[in-house]
Each structure stands twice: as C-alpha cells, then as structure tokens.
Amino acid sequence: MTTSKASESAASSSAGATGRPRLVSARFGRRSRSASARRRRRSSSIVLLFGLLATGVLWTVLAPGGNAADTASANEAVRQGKLLYSQGCATCHGLNAQGSTEGPSLIGVGAAAVDFQVSTGRMPLAAPAAQADRKDPLYSQTQIDQLAAYIQSLGGGPEKPNLTDEDLNDADLAEGGELFLTNCAQCHQAAGAGAPLTYGKFAPSLSQATPDQVVEAMRTGPESMPVFGSGQITDEEAVAVAAYVRHLQDTPAPGGSSLGKYGPVPEGLVAIVIGLGALLGVCLWIGARQKL
After folding, report:
1. Is 60 exceeded by the pLDDT of residue 142?
2. Domain 2-155 carries which CATH code?
3. Is the pTM of this model over 0.85?
4. Measured between alpha carbons, how far is 100 from 85 in angstroms, rounded to an integer?
5. Which of 17, 126, 234, 244 is the most buried (most CB within 10 A)?
C-alpha cells in the first residue's frame, strides 16, 4: 500500500516535470512565430514603400510632358480648325473629310499635307484643274496650324516638321545634293527650276519652297510626286535635301545671268541668236565697206 502510493507520487512528479518544459517550449514557439510574422510584415512594408517611391521617381522622369493648359490649347486649335474646314474645305472634301467626287479623303493625310497645300496657296482650290498652281496663301499661319491640327486629329498621319537654321546648317549638304540629283532632278531639274510633265501637269519650281515645304512634299507626295517614306529617305536625309534646295536658292550664278536655271537649251538659244546674229552683222558690215 505504501509502495503503491510512493509509485503514484513518483509518477505524478515525473509527469509534472515533463509537462512544464513542453508548455514552455510551446509558448516559446508561438512567440518566435509571432516575432517572425511581425518581421515579415515589416519587411514587406519597407519593400512596398521603396517600390512606390521608385515608381514615383520613374514616372516623374519618364512621364510624357504636357499639362492641362497644353491640352486645352490643342483642343481649341482643333475646334477652330474644324470651323475653318467647314467654311473653306467641306464643299469638296466632305463634311467629315471623308472625300467626295470633287476632292479626296483627308483622313490620315496628316498635318504635313495640310500645311504644304494651304501654305503654298494651292488649297483651297477655286476650280478643278490638271494641277494647282502655287500662289499666295489665303489663310494666316495660325489658321493653317489650326486646320492642320483638325485634320491630324481625324486619323493621324505625317506631322508638320519645324526645321530651324541650326538643323539646316548641321545637315550634310553634299549628301543632300546626291539625294536630290538621284531622286528629284528627273522632274524638278538639276537646279530645281521645274519642268513640264504629261497630261498638263508639271514639276514646279523650287525657288520659293521653304525647307519645311520640301520635307512635307517628300513625306506626303502632292500632285504627281511620289511619297518618300522614312524607309527610303530618313529624317536626317530629308533635312539634308531641304538644306540643298535652300543652297540652290541662295547661291548666285557664277557666270552671270542664270536665264531661269533652265539648263543648256536656253543658253544655247541665246548663243545662237545673239552670237550668230552678231557674227552676221559683222560680216555684212565688212562686205559693205569693201563695196565702198
């Protein structure tokens, strides 16, 4: 009996001794897991904070420029351009620029085509003809820009270039001359004086063309002119061609009168009429003196 009680007492004491370490271990494990979870949450918060900060910095650096004032100004230009279009262009090109029997569609032609046609006075056209002649523009440059903004908003297309003197001075003039002689001289003549084509059409003289208009013509292909895309002539090469055309306009003729820069035909005609005429007059004068 005594032995049994002693055994039970020893067993209970042993069980108590074993239970306490297990309880302490469980509590310690829960505390460790809680501390680890807190550390993970803290680390996640720090990573998220740095991610947001990096996103803000990248957006500030890489975000496109512009502000609400620029957007409002652009919208106003489109609105004014639509009014001008309705008054001067819709009769031939349709109310929504979709085209008609009197004029082609303007959707997708871009601001460059509008600036070229209107700034050179070719449009608006009073009456259909084989080809529109260059004349004084009917609109101011501000109105032309508004018309261009409206057409650009309809379907995109080539945008209006804005070349500066620095751009032209930095261009490769020799390369521009080679490109002009290869791609343009067949129609516009080597000196840019223009020449007749077929069916009443002609390649106009470039004596009044601005650098912007030269690039616009290459990119949009007005009248009988082909379109020269960036895959054929790069933007830098197009600027070089424009610089060469300006060089043709500004360079004086070293031999005196250029006779319109039409080449050897008028020069030969002048040589025959004036040169042979003068020789014939001298011969007649010598013959008249011998008779005396």
Report:
1. yes
2. 1.10.760
3. no
4. 15
5. 244
